[in-house]
Amino acid sequence: MHKTLASEGVYPVAQTAAEQQGRFDEFRQTFNTVRPHHALGLKTPASVYHPSPRPFPEKVKGFDYPDHFTTRKVHAHGCFVWHQKHTFASRVLANERIGLEQEADFMWSVYLGPVLLARFDEREGRSYS
Q1: How much is the pLDDT for 85?
Q2: CA-CA distance, 120 to 108, in Å (whole number)?
Q3: Environment class of residue 7 by beta-carbon count within 10 Å: exposed (0-12), middle (13-18) or buried (19+)?
């Protein structure tokens, strides 16, 4: 699929972003509604697609952390505030609440929900994977 996209939708590169978007849109339309796919028994993706009956939530519910956890919001720039200092976590975590569980003096485990992300040394202000 990626080789086909590159040869039919990317190269040669269009003069403007709008023109390139038009090429992508045309490729997607052909790929999904005209071109048969071997993996689908020579049917088109559009002919076999069925939307899920489950509603998609407007907003995914955040995580609940145990009472002994300390929580922090990760800001848009990827940092959370720890002892009045900005500490980098990850831009991927922007706008998420992380949970920190103290493991030893100055050492914390950092979680996103049930997933352990890193260990945080508050003396150095940095995390370790």
Answers
A1: 92
A2: 5
A3: exposed
